[in-house]
């Protein structure tokens, strides 16, 4: 009996990362559209100012989600291939790196470390839930 192979073993990390950026970036843009329309209406914006607010929201959330997904997926794939193991540690490392990358703009070491630990824990738990 032949052992099952994961298709991710044959696909380069750059392709996996690109796909992840596009998927999550699109999801973030859709979320930005929804929340942008809601917030602009809540703030009483109309006309061009409302449209501008929504476009900024779509772009900002699309880029943030795509950026996070690209860092997470690229790191996880790279660590997995480097270690030649598929386990929870890959998700933990990738979560810590992507969480730190998102929080780095705060320039606060405590927030960077806190976000790294938080995202690492969430991604590790999600990985355990996915494999069980």
Automatic annotation (TrEMBL):
Keywords: Membrane, Transmembrane, Transmembrane helix. Pfam families: Tim17. GO terms for molecular function: mitochondrion targeting sequence binding; protein transmembrane transporter activity. It is a multi-pass membrane protein. It comes from the Eukaryota. Its main location: membrane. GO terms for cellular component: TIM22 mitochondrial import inner membrane insertion complex. The keyword Phosphoprotein does not apply. GO terms for biological process: protein insertion into mitochondrial inner membrane. It is found in: Membrane. This is Uncharacterized protein.
